Amino acid sequence: LAKTTQPISMDSYEGQEVNITCSHNNIATNDYITWYQQFPSQGPRFIIQGYKTKVTNEVASLFIPADRKSSTLSLPRVSLSDTAVYYCLVGVRGFQKLVFGTGTRLLVSP
Amino acid sequence: KAGVTQTPRYLIKTRGQQVTLSCSPISGHRSVSWYQQTPGQGLQFLFEYFSETQRNKGNFPGRFSGRQFSNSRSEMNVSTLELGDSALYLCASSDGLTGRTGELFFGEGSRLTVL
Question: Contact at 8 Å (CB) between B96 and B108?
């Protein structure tokens, strides 16, 4: 399983765009990149998944460069409720044995 | 549709006791995974069951065990509890099919305190 590296924490203000970058230098050809969000005392929640280029859904965008050695989760116009820990995971699509790293603790202030 | 249900939500045990946690997955999901979350070690994979068979296993001692029933409900058991077993135990369900997103739907967890 490819190891991922993310910033431990990030600060932002309401209304700003937040970009969280994850490094995964050893990503394999069959690996997908998935992001989860976790609030305190709750289980993680799936945000987005991608393989290459750009993926967008109603809550976030995921940018993956051609070499796929990194990815960036973009949260547009964050609000206080986006304060959470964000995990970047890399692995074969559908593989259930997920490896969660330390994640990025995002704090959104008024 | 109903989400993942874990019971009990909170429990307190003493060292040496055993505990059983229960998880009811989303209807139609055949895969149930268990994770342990502690402040020091983060989220760690325990094991995964798919159609009543353990399909994946993490690096936990044999005191941690699980099973899955024909209706996909799952239980995990921890025997001879140690102080270090105090954690939030999360259950996640998914369709379990490779080639799909593998999106996990987590329950709210069972918080175990070992005294």
Answer: no
How distant is the Cα of A19 from the closest Cα of chain B, in angstroms?
Answer: 22
Q: Would you say B80 and B63 are in contact if contact means Cβ atoms under 8 Å apart?
A: yes
> With 90 as the cut, is the pLDDT of residue B16 above it?
yes
Give the Å distances, CA to CA, from A64 to A7, A74, B92: 17, 11, 27
- Average of per-residue pLDDT across A20-31: 92
Residues A103, A85: contact at Cβ < 8 Å? yes
Q: What are phi and psi of A15, to 5 degrees?
A: 90, -10
Q: What DSSP state is assigned to residue B96?
A: -
Q: Does A95 touch chain B (CB under 8 A)?
A: yes
CB atoms within 10 A of CB A55: 16
How much is the average pLDDT of A13-39? 94
Task: Give me the mean pLDDT over the A44-54 stretch.
Answer: 94
